[in-house]
Amino acid sequence: KEIIIATKNKGKVNEFKEMLNGSGYQVTSLLDYPDSVDVEESGVTFVENAILKAEAISKHYRKITIADDSGLSIDYLNGAPGVFSARYAGEEKNDAANLSKVLTELKGVPEAKRSARFHCALAIASPEKETFTVEGICEGMITEKMEGENGFGYDPIFKPRGREVTMAQLPKEEKNTISHRADALKKLEKGIAQYF
Ligand code: ITT
What we know:
dITP/XTP pyrophosphatase; 22% strand; ITPase-like_fam; 196 residues; 6-stranded mixed β-sheet; alpha/beta; Maf protein; hydrolase; 5 helices; globular; dITP/XTP_pyrophosphatase; single chain
């Protein structure tokens, strides 16, 4: 029972493998299919982009596929970087540059105005069935400096609500119970069986 996670992002792949460990599914990703098609993320929403990625990959390999489109939405920046999170500081993906850009834009902004949330849209697609989507969120705030080595992407500058440390300072097991991705996957999990 193979599920392809339609991503090349190692951080995402690791989290899906950890969260689906023991579920009985064999979790693969585009890192296992290096010659896969490039999908243009032309959607305006996370859900639209997740559908584009899941349907393109499930069609190409004729396998059940889950795609994850995610990002960070900062209230002070009117929801930016949002669906542009991966390329916020430029066309080339560069996490360090993206984080610096956010910290610069929020320089001097008081704590009360630093609220933000991670979004995760998941789409499951198969050659035979209709695509199904879910969404998850994780509320929090943007810190003043980077801290922590765990996780990936914006984790070092995001403090989840109710915690005193950044997402990157939490053990991975804890991130995987409170994250936007965990929230979304919980909503999807029961539905996965219907695709097999
Ligand atoms: P794929 O499209 O191949 O899945 P990607 O990294 O381009 O990989 P997205 O287009 O969904 O994925 O962009 C997600 C962005 O949001 C990217 O900058 C991530 O670093 C960030 N992001 C998503 N989930 C995150 C998490 O759990 N912690 C920190 N940052 C995250």
